[in-house]
Design brief:
The protein is mainly β. It has 1 helix and 7 strands.
């Protein structure tokens, strides 16, 4: 699992039929300190994430383990919206304070 921040959306009017109904978001990968690593990822949204939110996402075969992505050709899925991130006893991210 990885941390990311939603930075955009992806729209594809023509796609594999089994992908119909999925919303795709563009993520910028974060490290555990909440800093952007420079890497981007496109992931199917299984939880209703929005622009600017910090999310937890999975890749590879784990991305096909949610009820929204099961048996679909999906290599990335957002599976949680992060409320708080604490590392080494220090609060690194708090959604309530982030605005």
């Amino acid at each position: 699992m990885y941390l990311g921040r939603v930075v955009g959306t992806l729209v594809a009017t023509r796609k594999e039929p089994s992908l119909e109904g999925l919303k795709f978001l563009v993520l910028k990968q974060l490290d555990v300190a909440g800093q952007e690593t420079g890497a981007y990822r496109v992931a199917a949204d299984a939880v209703g994430a929005g622009f600017g939110e910090v999310v937890l996402y999975a890749t590879g075969s784990a991305a096909r383990q949610t009820s929204r992505t099961q048996d679909r050709p999906c290599d990335g899925v957002i599976m949680a919206i992060v409320d708080q991130l604490e590392v080494g006893g220090e609060l690194v991210y708090d959604k309530a304070e982030a605005g």
